[in-house]
Design goal:
Shape: globular
Oligomer: single chain
Strand content: 5-15%
Number of strands: 16
Structural class: alpha/beta
């Protein structure tokens, strides 16, 4: 191994069946003196580097050394069962992504051990020079025979729509294995990461991934397994391709290309159905469709993806696209300065996603104007999901946001839970853990809504410290409930419901007719009443001048003061810059709909 070679492992822990991160879990790597313990952050995530062999080994089909290193990982935290992951693969200069769902255990019950065994990579298993005795998932057929069946057109799927969720058999059709429902995107990332080296040239990866997608879509289009009486949509091929392994790591280059090509598939000219593509490794199985190692050689010589595909599948093929099942179709890139209904839709989706991914900031004014807050939220999303961090909603980012949102919606449908669920445990000064993290995120989102003078922001550190207790007390004062500084069941319900109501509208501060608070709202005020006034001023200004004037920040500052005086003068009221009952009624009557925002 060349000194200094390493890869990156990104591990994220969530509760099984829920998009809720596990905070402060201990992640143990190495053994003995080299043992290291890391802690997951508020997103349930931990990143670390790990040694790896030099990348050139993975470009040699007859390498005598394994082209990746193996990292075994142990995970332990209060309230969850212990986890051990065996066989995580690390390649030089590649990010390995591990999404781990953990099961919780009740207090007082024994802690169970949950073990995930990741099989040896298929290409290394086929290497004649491989002397490893590793974990492997069964025989690989060296028979290049194609398995075809007559297409029953009466049972064909709707090819115009990209499959969203499929039932996968985690083995060959005739093998005993579990069935698992996963997204089509997750399925392709999983099977591709088990049969392709992520260090290969881009064109080779694209050609192989497109062949895998086409083969999978052919099986779905023809209802191959369902028509044979099986209770699943897809299974591993007889030659070992398309085998889904629960818990397998994904590789960042493969995930990126899958995101770009997921809507595509190969067809023969004059045909509608996806081509039943065949693949072989090109060494142990030298014939039978696309040669994996042959595609690497072609890519190294400068051949493109399409040239590689035509070399193995003939000149009479083309790439077609299926539409996604969701209605949010990508039309053009969105960036800072854009104003449109598509921006508004993405802003509200991002705010919903932010409930489950706390490091993504809420966008206060989700009204269709792409401003600095939206750009910051997009960059945070891109950083978390390992996308190019440019703050622009291009096709890759768009599809990812819509997919994650659909996954959250599916979760809500399956569980009947539309809001963030909180434990009814009372949180007091000195407490630590996941529930404190969620409380702190909720406090900060309400601080953005109501203003820092109403609810001061806190540091998100998972500790119920002085600042957290102070903010809880401020909130209790605002809601006129007992001032204890303790996040009891009643206080947590108020905070949770108000935060979710804020996000249910996509972070939009637009409201219906709002009653006069009973006291004048003056310069220096903060909170919901000021937000209502600013929205009303913007709506009226838009009718008069064609554009809004104020940034909706909930702070009654100099700009709000001057804009209010202008409105009062226009409507013949005393231009004193104070919102008393007469000015409030005017804003309520003259404003057709509050909620127009200058920036988002």
């Amino acid at each position: 191994m060349v000194k200094g070679c390493s890869g990156n492992i990104i591990l994220r822990l969530t509760k099984g069946g829920e998009p809720e991160p596990i905070f402060n879990a201990g992640v143990i790597i190495g053994e003995g003196e080299k043992e290291q313990t890391l802690l997951t952050d508020t997103d349930g995530r931990v990143d670390f580097t790990y040694y790896a062999p030099q990348a050139t080994l993975s470009l040699n089909p007859l390498s005598e050394k394994r082209p990746y290193s193996i990292c075994d990982i142990r995970i332990s935290a209060s309230g969850i069962n212990d986890i051990r992951i065996i066989g995580c693969q690390v390649f030089d200069d590649v990010s390995t992504i591990l999404n781990c769902e953990v099961t919780t255990h009740r207090e007082g019950t024994p802690v169970k051990k949950q073990t995930t065994r990741i099989p040896v990579h298929r290409l290394w298993a086929l290497n004649p020079k491989n002397n490893d005795s590793g974990i492997f998932w069964g025989d690989i057929s060296t028979n290049s025979k194609s398995y075809f069946k007559i297409i029953d057109m009466s049972r064909k799927s709707h090819l115009e729509e990209l499959p969203e969720y499929i039932v996968v058999h985690c083995g060959k059709a005739n093998e005993e294995a579990i069935n698992k429902t996963v997204s089509f995107s997750e399925y392709i990332k999983n099977v591709a990461s088990g049969v392709l080296y992520p260090t290969w040239p881009e064109a080779a990866l694209q050609a192989n991934i497109l062949a895998l997608i086409s083969l999978a879509k052919n099986r779905l289009y023809t209802n191959y397994y369902r028509s044979l009486g099986y209770g699943f949509d897809i299974a591993a091929e007889q030659d070992g391709f398309l085998r889904f392994c629960e818990g397998r790591m994904h590789f960042e280059p493969i995930c990126r290309i899958v995101g770009e090509l997921l809507n595509c598939y190969i067809v023969k000219n004059g045909y509608k159905e996806p081509l039943c593509t065949k693949l072989c490794d090109g060494v142990r199985v030298p014939l039978g469709g696309l040669s994996q190692w042959g595609s690497v050689t072609m890519a190294q010589k400068g051949n493109s993806r399409d040239e590689i595909l035509m070399q193995y599948y003939g000149d009479n093929i083309q790439i077609k696209m299926s539409e996604p099942t969701h209605k949010e179709i990508f039309l053009e890139s969105l960036q800072k300065g854009c104003i449109s209904s598509k921006v508004k839709m993405i802003q509200r989706i991002l705010n919903r996603v932010a409930l489950f991914y706390p490091t993504i900031p809420f966008i206060r004014d989700a009204e269709g104007s792409f401003g600095s807050l939206t750009e910051a939220a997009v960059k945070a999303y891109q950083r978390f999901f390992k996308l190019p961090m440019n703050g622009i909603i291009d096709r890759l980012t768009w599809d990812s946001i819509v997919y994650v949102n659909n996954s959250i919606n599916k979760y809500a449908e399956f569980t009947g839970r539309q809001k963030v669920i909180y434990d009814d445990k009372v949180l007091i000064y000195g407490d630590m853990g996941n529930e404190v993290v969620k409380l702190q995120h909720s406090i900060n989102s309400l601080s953005r809504k109501l203003g820092e003078k109403c609810i001061p922001k806190v540091n998100i550190n998972g500790r119920f410290d002085d600042r957290t207790r102070n903010s809880v007390t401020f909130y209790q004062k605002y809601k006129k409930i007992p001032l204890s500084g303790v996040a009891d069941k009643n206080t947590r319900k108020f905070i949770n419901d108000e935060c979710c109501d804020f996000i249910a509208t996509g972070g939009c501060t637009t409201s219906e007719k709002k009653k006069y608070p009973g006291y004048p709202v003056v310069r220096g005020s903060e909170g919901e009443d000021v937000i209502y006034i600013q929205n009303a001023i913007n709506a009226i200004k838009t009718l008069i001048t064609g554009k809004p004037e104020l940034v909706i920040d909930g702070v009654f500052g100099e700009k709000t003061y001057k804009a209010l005086i202008d409105i009062q003068t226009i409507f013949g009221l005393n231009p004193d810059g104070v919102v008393e009952d007469n000015t409030w009624v005017m804003l309520e009557c003259e404003c057709p709909q509050t909620g127009t925002s200058a920036v988002g």
